[in-house]
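Dear Dr. L.,

I hope this message finds you well. Following up on our conversation about the binding site, I have prepared a predicted three-dimensional model of the protein together with iron/sulfur cluster. For your records, I am including the exact sequence and ligand specification that went into the calculation, followed by the C-alpha cells. Please feel free to forward this to your student if that is useful.
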Amino acid sequence: MAGDMPRGCEACLRGAKMVLFVTGKCEGSCYYCPLSERRKNLDVIYADEVAVEGDLDIILEGRAIDAEGTGITGGDPLMRLTRTLKFIRLLKGFFGEDHHIHLYTNGRRASRDALVRLKSAGLDEIRFHPARRDWERVAEAKALGMYAGAEVPSIPGEADKIKGLIRYLASVRADFININQLEFCPQNAFQLRQRGFRVIGGSMAAAEGSEEAAKEVVGWAEAEGIEFPVHYCPSSVKDAVQTRMRLSRRAANAARPWEERLDDGTVGKFVVKVPGASGRAAKRILARALGVDVAQVGVADDGSSVEVPRRMLDAVRTVIPGAAVSYVQAYPTAAREKFAEFPC
Ligand code: SF4
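The resulting structure of the complex is given below.
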C-alpha cells in the first residue's frame, strides 16, 4: 500500500458500511464477474443480504448494523440512475450528512449529467472499474470536484495494464486506486479455469498469481516515485475482517433472546424437537413446562422445532427426556441462513 487509504474504505474495514446492491443490470461482460444467479442481470435490490421491497428495508438494515456509511454497487448502479439518486437522498436524509456513501460503476453511463446529479444528491466518493475507452470518465468526475478513483481486480499476468491505468489516474489527479485479489466463485470458476487460472493451494478461493501481480504494481508505483495512493486489498481482508465485522455489528443489534453471539459474527442456539407438537404450539408447551415467558423461546422458520438459549438446556432435557437437540450456528441475517449444525 502507498498513500492514504480511500475514505470509503475506513468504515468498510470496521464492518460499518452497508452494501446496497441497486440492480443486477450491467452492460459490462467481465469474464470474472462474481454476481450470483440470483442477482446477475436481474433488476433486484439488496441491502447486505436482505432483499429490498421498500425503502424501509434499507433503513432497517442500516440500523441493524449501525451503518456509518453505504457502498452502492450492482451490476452498474448508473443503469438505474433515478433509483440510485433516490437512495442516496434517502440515506443522507435518514442517517445524516456524515453517512459516507461511495458508489461503484464501470463508468459506461457516467455522463457529465449523471455525475452532476450524483454529486448534487450527496454522493461522497465514486469508484470506477473502467474499460480503456471509459478512463476519461474519471477525469470528468475530478473536473466536477468529486472524490474519485478506481477499483480493479488483479488479473495474473496483467500488471502492466494496471500500471497504465495508474499513470493515467495520476495524470488527472484522481484520488486512489484499489487493487483487489482475484477470487474464484461458482459464477466465474469455469471462465477462470478456461483461462488457465487456479485456486491457491490451501485457500478457499484466491487465484494463483493475483497477489503477486498486485504486489508487483504496488512496488513499481513506489519505485517510480508515483505520488498516487495505490492499495492492495487481499480477499482475506474482505472475508475475514469486513464481513465478520459487519456480521458482528448486526448480531449485536439483532441477536434474539435465545441466541448467543459468537466470535466469528454468527449466532448460536439450541434447537429442540418437541414430541407431538410443532410451531407456536410447541413453543407454548415448552415455555410452560420450563416456567419461562414465551418470548424467551423461539420457533424455527419451518416450524419444525423450537429454539432455546444455552442456560435452559439442562431444564429442557429434564422436561423432555431423550429430546432430540442440536446446536445450530447461523448468520445473524433476517433469514438466519444456517452456517453449521451439530447434534448434541
Ligand atoms: S462491471 Fe461489474 S457487474 Fe458488470 S460484468 Fe463487470 S464485474 Fe460484473
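In brief: The chain has a mean pLDDT of 91.

With kind regards,
A. P.
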